[in-house]
Amino acid sequence: MARFTIYRGFLSMRRHSGSVAILVIACLAVVSEAQTRREIRFPDLPGQRTLKCDFHTHTAFSDGDVWPHVRINEAWREGLDVIAITDHIEYRPHKNDINADHNRPYEIAAARAKELNILVIKGTEITRDTPPGHFNALFLEDINPLDTKDFYEVFNRATAQKAFITWNHPSWLGVERGKWGEAQTRLFEAKQLHAVEICNGDEYYPDGHQSAIERGLPVLGCSDVHRPLSDRPATATEHRTMTLVFAKERSLPAVREALFAGRTVAWYKNQLIGPENLLAPMLAACVEIRPPHHQNKDSAWVEIRNLCELDLTLELGPAGSITRANIPAGATNVVRLSVKALSADGSIACKASNFITAPNTVLQTRLMIATPKPAPTTSPAGI
Amino acid sequence: MARFTIYRGFLSMRRHSGSVAILVIACLAVVSEAQTRREIRFPDLPGQRTLKCDFHTHTAFSDGDVWPHVRINEAWREGLDVIAITDHIEYRPHKNDINADHNRPYEIAAARAKELNILVIKGTEITRDTPPGHFNALFLEDINPLDTKDFYEVFNRATAQKAFITWNHPSWLGVERGKWGEAQTRLFEAKQLHAVEICNGDEYYPDGHQSAIERGLPVLGCSDVHRPLSDRPATATEHRTMTLVFAKERSLPAVREALFAGRTVAWYKNQLIGPENLLAPMLAACVEIRPPHHQNKDSAWVEIRNLCELDLTLELGPAGSITRANIPAGATNVVRLSVKALSADGSIACKASNFITAPNTVLQTRLMIATPKPAPTTSPAGI
Amino acid sequence: MARFTIYRGFLSMRRHSGSVAILVIACLAVVSEAQTRREIRFPDLPGQRTLKCDFHTHTAFSDGDVWPHVRINEAWREGLDVIAITDHIEYRPHKNDINADHNRPYEIAAARAKELNILVIKGTEITRDTPPGHFNALFLEDINPLDTKDFYEVFNRATAQKAFITWNHPSWLGVERGKWGEAQTRLFEAKQLHAVEICNGDEYYPDGHQSAIERGLPVLGCSDVHRPLSDRPATATEHRTMTLVFAKERSLPAVREALFAGRTVAWYKNQLIGPENLLAPMLAACVEIRPPHHQNKDSAWVEIRNLCELDLTLELGPAGSITRANIPAGATNVVRLSVKALSADGSIACKASNFITAPNTVLQTRLMIATPKPAPTTSPAGI
Amino acid sequence: MARFTIYRGFLSMRRHSGSVAILVIACLAVVSEAQTRREIRFPDLPGQRTLKCDFHTHTAFSDGDVWPHVRINEAWREGLDVIAITDHIEYRPHKNDINADHNRPYEIAAARAKELNILVIKGTEITRDTPPGHFNALFLEDINPLDTKDFYEVFNRATAQKAFITWNHPSWLGVERGKWGEAQTRLFEAKQLHAVEICNGDEYYPDGHQSAIERGLPVLGCSDVHRPLSDRPATATEHRTMTLVFAKERSLPAVREALFAGRTVAWYKNQLIGPENLLAPMLAACVEIRPPHHQNKDSAWVEIRNLCELDLTLELGPAGSITRANIPAGATNVVRLSVKALSADGSIACKASNFITAPNTVLQTRLMIATPKPAPTTSPAGI
Where are the extended beta strands (E) located within C60-194? Predict the structure, then answer.
């Protein structure tokens, strides 16, 4: 695929022309060729869809670099299901050039989202000094009423619209200024603070993570993107920071329900960060250990397949007989295990360095050896 | 993963050392880290496994560049299931340095194959002037008896071992010298010629393809590799030329059964080449067309997912209302179809430029719009 | 380098904060880390700098997708020296949201250009039905006076400002509508048409090229970019379409002088397109043929180094003894030449498929074998 | 360029054929197309060539995986000037299959080296328990006399041939077993130990480095490659570990002279490791700092170009006013310096994290701002 089809892209449509017929033809060709999506490989959990979500993005309507529909094009290309447009209310450096109310960037994005089947959330960033810091209000009906100077009144008005409210990048200006403070406590007690953005772009905030754990708040990873996003293929370590939401279906109401129910995990660099009750089934869904195909009295050779986007680092087996396996995203390794690692019930002790349940704490669990499945009896295509 | 772990790789094991304990530890680490496999994404067909096979490779024992176990490492890394070692009987430029009978390269390869779960076939290349050309005998018990000057006697001895015999790279020295000739006819009539290698490395032989079609012989694609193989990630256009075999299970007897039954397709550059009765279900398994997510009176926007390794080029819809979709391997496009493309029975007319049923002939078929499936009720891992 | 430093990028600066001190520190770090440039390797010609220029770009102020400073960031990253901002006067789909006069996108871009040492030209695109089509006016003082409906008056006003005027993408709506017409003749005769954009994005217009040759007009290649540009490393075949300008120094007056003097070549896909008197010395500067390092009575082995961004395809030697060499950008090949290719004067006949002097015409010339140079006596760093 | 031209590669030549004419033609095409080299960008120093050398490689004749000419193909492809073939004398796991004396792998390699202009050294690895460990003897006339059990006698015989002798991978079996011991002392005092391989594949040995510094021995980086080498493009962090030798010319005698004179630096991952008197001029040659192109009262914006293969990490300026610059290999950054960094003499304080003069010690030096050079008056091609 051409790197510079972007020139062709929607170019023709945008050049002024008297010929509507030509525009329609060009458009047909364009949609088919230019909009290629790479799915993000994190498996669904039993009974739930794993939706890939970014709840924090900016456009030229505040201090971002792009027109709002670009955020939809990027989301599609990168395999996301959901994004929120969250331009600042208070910080709009282009306001002398751009004339629009606070809902306008959402409107532009939503028109494009319909074509590309992206779910888009109307949101905004409430932007104050740190502390208390920045907050996102998501699922708003109308952003304009939030443009007021009274800090707590903003949250009352957001709550009146049943917004989901997040505390953004707690320690972005240092740990001292990023502590859970009086404002956070007051909002939390008023049920006006619903999640903590523990990963923002290429930063992770252990203190914010600890605060979330202590209060039972869901954790989010977000891009907070301002510039045009890279179109290089994402890798396990270089990808958009985002949130996996385990939703009952692919719809905005289901995303909202899952957020309020706390079914979220942050995907940050080469890690999934979240509660053990979500990470343990996710690890089980990501790793397929096949029965040994070769064995001697000491060792068993097994194929282990990594079904997700992390470059997995696993320690397999009981203390004293551990084999370390580094399995790149989507790859399969042959791993030589000690026969002591194979227990009678078909399970193997596993420590997964990429699965983070709390600051400095990795998931320890047991994985089952897979039962072989027969070849499918019907074609595998299907949604 | 480090590009140069190959230095570490099996290095430690190969340095001379008095310490067996150290060797064992090193070995454990090595197998886990160095042997990463990328699965080749061609879906199984109903009731059959799609095995990825290369029936033509060389080692230093004839005119190749590598020790035989390297061919197994490469096969594992590249996602193959089956390879044949087919060193020349008659052409062995290293024979002053290497002292061994004709079975030796297979033996070395087979020892490694056990660890990496690769199925390896004992074979050889019968190497004569062109015409009559070169032939592979596969599934031999003992290659040594085939080392005789009488051309037809070689085939008798191969057949006595129930070999599967292929005619290799028909036109590699030009179309004139590569014609189906008297030798081919005599062997075919004696049931001593079972397939035609229509693709060899980066060459495709339309005449050989036509010869195979006319006589109902299965077609093969093979690498005929002599040099060490590239370890760059394969792409739709740059990959090992190989054969997809549709076998009842992943075993050598099943491969043999499928070969004699003619269930093969060549994967050559960005094409699958084979008979329509195999290519049509393969296309159906590779393409997932989702129900429209957006529609107006003229157009319907649908997501189409490409589940295979080809960069697909599809023409969708009836004459006069065709949309062309270029969907890279493993990617999803939004395609804007004419509403006229959507028929009442949920099928769409499709011309697939990458699926070649005969020289200059591409597959035309109908594809069904997929029925949405619910989220899985159990973990997706499994073989 | 991190793919997603873009999140960090200028992010911190753009978040609202009360702390000026922190902003300054963040800014220092950001400029150092985020703005990496890949130089474009086309050698200078004797006495002249080879400047890499894009004379046709759009921003959100007309129908582009990005804020104007993004075009400067992209130009720096991609190794350009010069860009023109050329938003449409007549076609501004965001005009209900953006309130600004026609000079505003240039002003925003110019502020950023100072920091990144990019030369930026104030320009505009005159956008009419085709025919007569679209034209760029470059090096304007004030764009606003050109916002008038009288077609020829626009050119008078541009000429009054000493603009350099180009005819854009002649056949973008088909060969018939893209012919050199009455308007072109009238402008040309009035000395109000100075160049033809023969390459635009991924299109090349042979008819436009022929028109330029016949009238002695310089040729341009431009991106006409609307979307955010890819940040993937450019390759010989996938790069921004641009113009090489051979200027006496790296300054806007020197660019202007070179344009009016016709010292331009278009770099389009894997080709340089321009007049022979420029292409011949450019080829000589791009190819270094070393003296044979090994020879027998028939053949000579020589190293040939490709010093430019094209994947070169050369045919070397006299008729009947030609060796074809495919030398990737920046690489060196060992080429085995016939001894007949080595003439007494140290020159070798060469046909260069990538150097296009006219539609369907490639450069044929002679290249000299290089004289070895001693190791440098001083450090090679220097501008 | 096709990834799988390797199939074509020398394939045709190796298939048995009666037609010599065809072989010659195939061969001509092959040499031209298949053998592409990427030069390694480390600049020459004043009066010296920077030769890229690997003094430690294996082939199938000991415990390597490839036929010896493959090491030459790899060296050419990767941009090396010099390699040594150093198969083990004592450890030859393929000896039941391969029948040859110890000089044979060199002979095979040397025939290929002539065509590809690679300098190849006849060497061997003396392979004993650790301690005393492994040693390479380089520049031998005849390896066979070294095949004797008496440890010290081997070195006498190597010295009789004027060999250059290296102590290999000191701590490869742990720091304890890798200490400088009695054997090293005895050899060193007898002038039979001339260098220490402080980097081997992906290992670095600080203790060995310290031993070399204390005794004034030159340091080497080597691959010790056994497997086929990757053909992926090398990066700053993933490349063949090698030695830069600063030689008076590109010849084996000059390499030998430079080795005995100690003019070597190891290139290991993203670092150059060696003595300060070599690293300081190398850094000066690698970094081009241009005069500020933009300035205000606090800051100066300068372009800094990285002319080498390291991703440089520089700290520029005096204490309290340091700017950190991460400049990828071959790239240019705009760096915003404090005006305090600009001293009257045009030099800037610089700490270069990639230049290692001793374990845990990085180079600190001053770099000069470059003086602009005029455009060249002659074509830049030349050796």
Answer: 82-85, 119-127, 134-138, 164-167
Alpha-carbon distance A133 to nearest alpha carbon in chain C (angstroms):
9
What is the b/e burial string over C66-76, where b = at least 16 CB atoms within 10 angstroms of the residue's CB? bbbbbbbbbbb
* CATH architecture of the domain covering A283-368: Sandwich (2.60)
How far does CA D163 lie from the centroid of its chain?
19
Burial of B242 (0-12, 13-18, 19+ CB in 10 A): buried
Q: Mark yes or no for CB contact D11/B223 under 8 Å.
A: no
Q: Is B1 on the interface with A (CB under 8 A)?
A: yes
Rounded to the nearest angstrom, the gap between the alpha carbon of residue B110 and the centroid of all alpha carbons in its chain is 19
Closest C-alpha to D86, from D169, D176, D178, D173: D169
Rounded to the nearest integer, the mean pLDDT of chain A is 90
**Interface probe with B: pick from D1, D5, D6, most Cβ of B within 10 Å:** D6
Mention the CATH class of domain C281-368: mainly beta
Candidates C1, C8, C14: best to mutate against A (most CBs of A within 10 A) is: C14
Which DSSP letter does residue B200 get? Answer: E
Distance from CA of C295 to the nearest CA of A (A): 42
- Distance from the first to the final alpha carbon of chain D: 25
Q: Give Cα separations from D13 to A73, B179, B270 (angstroms).
A: 50, 21, 27
* Domains of chain B, residue spans: 1-34, 38-274, 281-368
A325-344 residues touching B, CB cutoff 8 A: 325-328, 330-336
Q: What is the pLDDT of residues C238-276, one digit of tens each?
A: 999 999 999 999 999 999 999 999 999 999 999 999 999
CA distance A69 to A107: 9
**What's the confidence (pLDDT) of residue C35?**
76
Measure Cα distances from C270 to B238, C206, C317 in Å. Answer: 20, 16, 23
Interface test with A, best of C57, C59, C74, C97 (most A CBs within 10 A): C97
Q: Which numeric CATH code is attached to B38-274?
A: 3.20.20.140
Asked if the A37-274 domain carries CATH number 3.20.20.140, the reply is: yes
pLDDT score at A25: 33
pLDDT in tens, D248-285: 999 999 999 999 999 999 999 999 999 999 999 999 99
What ipTM was reported for this prediction?
Answer: 0.90
Task: State pLDDT tens for residues A72-82.
Answer: 999 999 999 99
The token pair at A36 is 């290629």
The 10s digit of each residue's pLDDT in C161-193 is 999 999 999 999 999 999 999 999 999 999 999
For B255-286, the pLDDT digits (tens) are: 999 999 999 999 999 999 999 999 999 999 99
β-pairing verdict for B82-85 and B119-127 = parallel
pLDDT digits (tens, 9 = 90+) for D74-119: 999 999 999 999 999 999 999 999 989 999 999 999 999 999 999 9
pLDDT score at C343: 86
Q: For residue B104, which residues of chain D lie inside 8 Å, CB to CB? A: 97
CB-CB under 8 Å, A328 with B37: no
In this complex, the residue of D114, D335, D372 whose CB is nearest that of residue C383 is D372
Instruction: Please check whether residue A321 touches B, CB under 8 A.
Output: no
- Measure the N-to-C terminal CA separation of chain B; round to a whole number of Å: 25
Q: Are B185 and B195 in contact (CB under 8 A)?
A: no
Task: State whether residue D63 sits within 8 Å of chain B by CB.
Answer: yes
Name the CATH topology of D39-274.
Answer: TIM Barrel (3.20.20)
| Alpha-helical segments (H) within D172-326 | 182-189, 206-215, 252-261, 276-286
Within a 10 A sphere around the Cβ of B17, how many other Cβ atoms? 20
* ∠ Cα A65 C89 C219 (to 5°): 90
- Interface check for A182 against chain C (CB to CB < 8 A): the answer is no
